[in-house]
Amino acid sequence: GGGTGDRSFDITPIGTPRGVIVLIFGTGTADQIVGVTADAIAMSEVTLSPALAAAESNSHIYFLGSGIPNQTLTIAIDAGASPYAAAAITLTAGADTEVHDTSRSTTTADDPSVVLTITSASFCAGVLGSGDPNVPTAGTGTTMITSVDFGAATGGISRASAIESANFTYGFVTPNSDDVALLAVAITEIATPSLLIRPNPMRVHLTQ
Predict the structure, then answer these.
(1) pTM for the full model?
(2) Of 39, 37, 35, 36, which Cα lies nearest the Cα of 69?
(3) Label partner for 183 (CA 20 to 30 A): which of 49, 95, 107, 142?
């Protein structure tokens, strides 16, 4: 599985979209993602992205938290020739959203994890590129969205199973130790952080 080069796909939010997250993992150790747009609006690559493993894998997260059209969104990824997979998540909230924290690991240990520092209600998501030939599964408190076996490398994208209001350990389960590139992000409301952000699981779009 997995595709290469520039690709695009549509995602239709429910309600007024207040945040869009695009998570990408692929093969190789180079930063091959040139940029990501949502309806031609440039998305920002979050702090600490990309995560580049010592061998075989990479991961990226892009985010847009304001000015999102209330319509079907076309997500476009400008990328190189190495195989990659991606997913987009739209968020509804009472106000615009922003990145609350990000965390990254490029370890060789099995079951990699990072800690997100959270002080207000946040939606969390993560992406893993791995040199382990066995696809990753969800870590504690998370739910898998997709995983792909590229052959020599694998990867996966997941989301936290609940809104998190305190520091959260975000991880994946990998059967073997190998080079991995793990990124996780926490997103919160700007104006009223106490309100819950409601991810819509029916509006997650996958591309491989």
Answers:
(1) 0.91
(2) 39
(3) 95
